[in-house]
Design goal:
By secondary structure, the chain is an alpha+beta fold. The protein is built from 13 helices and nine strands.
Length: 557
């Protein structure tokens, strides 16, 4: 921005004016003094004219021979350069008039005096001396006037210089010092984050005015940037607090999921915590194939928001749903990821447990085959040898051999069933799929139709529980195939009124005389023990329509 009056140029002009006034006053005083250099000479000469006038009068009265010489001296004195210098225009008219009167009177007196007519001169010498006195007085007044002029010039010059210095100092204070002090105070205020320090002298047309306007714009920009940064810091702080809150919640949820032995009990608690923390109306977790946990009170007026637990796997990985008037997408996404990882970890643990169980059962099967099965086979060979050596006439001995043969056959059959049970390949799958895997090979062992009806709870049981359930179902099916002489066997799955899993194996065979004590083996007792391991119960009944019904009730995970 252009400046109309620069501080440096204003100071330079003020200093130049001070110097000019000093030169003028000093010059005028010097000029006046130089004009007064011959004033003393003029006064002396004028004063000597009175004495010379009286001496001429004496010479004239006494007839002195020195009269002519003294007339010449008097004329030279009257015509001296110091007196001739008074005939200037700057000399006061009173001095010039007195000097001209002297000259005129001398021109009248000189011819008579030179001719010897001294009477007229002696008669008028007093008047002539009076003219000289008046001339000397005028010279005195003129010399005093010049001294007064020098003194006045000096005083006026000092007053003017002092006034100019005062005005300069006042202008410097008003246009430099005060604005500069305001700028300093404003800088301290801005340093304390006060961007409205007070009005600055923006109207000045010098460098400080430009600086004040620039400082004002700068303070406005600083205030805008400061508030912008402050808002950004507040926003980042709020984001960090939100992130910390989300992390704390997710950490607590993760801790709850990892601390529970039975994860099925942990999911409702985790969902309940999320429901309370985010003030949700309802939240639901669905996992394949048909496992769902819902917490809260669903509102028909609110839409369900959904997130896939694993977007890459789609609906196969499960789904998280919730109802809320306001929720944080990032938090819910993190929560869904946490649930997905927990479900994956749970399934992986189930697989590991299943593999360990299968490996243990296969080991037992191998040990039974290598020990007990070999011993039974050896006994069968020895019994065959015994049959050949026993006489046909020894009826009691042959009867005992036949009983031993039947016992070995039954033991061998039971061992094969036991080996088949231990070698049963149960894939880690949900309960409906596992039941279908058990039923499929049994259909080849009977002419009866084996039907799977209903829909059990679509959940993954623990490996040990799943083995117990499938062994109970398989034992019940084998009993129906071997002893019932049935034409149709129905396996029905579902939930009872108490929410328990219910599996019923019904046949249309001849039934049991005493359902609680079937003859031949201890299979029913083992089935009851397995049901107790499931925290459930086993009920064997005879329906009115005939046949036998084996019902297994056990809670879900």
């Amino acid at each position: 921005m252009m400046m109309k009056r620069s501080v440096t140029s204003s100071l330079a002009r003020a200093l130049f004016a001070i110097a000019l006034l000093s030169v003028l006053s000093t010059g005028l005083a010097m000029l006046t003094l130089s004009a007064s250099l011959r004033d003393a000479e003029a006064v002396n000469i004028a004063g000597s004219l009175r004495m010379q006038s009286y001496r001429l009068a004496w010479d004239a009265s006494t007839g002195s021979a020195e009269l002519t010489k003294n007339i010449q001296i008097y004329h030279q004195s009257l015509d001296a350069p110091a007196l001739r210098a008074l005939d200037r225009r700057y000399v006061p008219s009173s001095v010039r008039e007195r000097y001209h009167e002297l000259l005129s009177s001398w021109q009248k007196l000189r011819p008579d005096l030179a001719a010897g007519n001294t009477l007229y001169y002696r008669q008028h010498v007093s008047q002539y001396v009076a003219q000289i006195d008046r001339f000397v007085l005028a010279l005195q007044h003129w010399a005093e006037l010049k001294m007064l002029l020098v003194a006045g010039t000096s005083v006026l010059g000092f007053i003017a210089i002092a006034a100019l210095v005062f005005w300069t100092l006042r202008s410097v204070r008003r246009q430099v010092v005060l604005p500069l002090n305001k700028l300093v105070r404003a800088s301290h205020e801005i340093e304390q984050a006060n961007f409205h320090p007070g009005p600055l002298d923006v109207g000045l047309e010098n460098e400080l005015g430009v600086l004040a306007r620039a400082f004002t714009r700068m303070s406005s920009e600083l205030e805008r940037h400061y508030h912008h940064l402050e808002d950004a810091v507040k926003e980042k702080t709020q984001d960090l607090r939100q992130a910390n809150r989300r992390l704390a919640l997710l950490y607590r949820c993760s801790e709850m999921l990892s601390s529970h032995i039975n994860s099925a009990q942990a999911y409702p608690q985790v969902l309940e915590r999320m429901l309370q923390h985010e003030a949700l109306h309802a939240i639901s977790l669905t996992a394949p194939p048909q496992w769902e946990v819902t917490v809260g009170e669903p509102d028909d007026q609110l839409p369900w928001q959904r997130l896939q637990l694993d977007p890459a796997a789609g609906a196969q990985a499960g789904e998280l749903r919730w109802q809320a008037t306001r929720s944080e997408p990032q938090l819910m996404q993190g929560f869904a990821t946490l649930l997905a990882r927990s479900l994956q970890l749970e399934r992986a643990q189930h697989k590991v447990q299943h593999l360990l169980l299968m490996e243990e059962r296969a080991t037992i099967a191998r040990e039974l085959h290598d020990s007990l099965a070999q011993s039974l086979a050896y006994l069968r060979i020895q019994l065959a040898r015994l049959k050949r050596v026993v006489s046909e006439d020894a009826a009691p001995a042959r009867a005992i051999v036949s009983e031993i043969d039947r016992a070995l056959s039954e033991a061998n059959r039971q061992l094969r069933e036991l080996l088949t049970t231990f070698r049963l390949s149960i894939e880690p799958a949900d309960l409906p799929t596992a039941l279908e895997q058990v039923i499929a090979p049994l259909r080849q062992q009977t002419r009866a139709a084996i039907l799977l009806q209903g829909q059990p709870a679509g959940q993954h049981l623990e490996a040990q529980k799943q083995v117990h359930v499938l062994q109970i179902v398989r034992e019940a099916l084998l009993n129906a195939i071997r002893h019932a002489e049935a034409t149709q066997i129905v396996v029905h799955c579902g939930l009872n009124a108490q929410g328990e899993n219910c599996i019923e194996i019904s046949d249309d065979g001849k039934g049991l005389a005493d359902p609680e004590s079937p003859p031949g083996h201890y299979g029913l007792m083992i089935m009851h023990e397995r049901a107790a391991s499931l925290n459930g119960r086993l009920v064997v009944s005879a329906p009115e329509t005939g046949g036998t019904r084996v019902s297994l009730f056990f809670p879900g995970n």
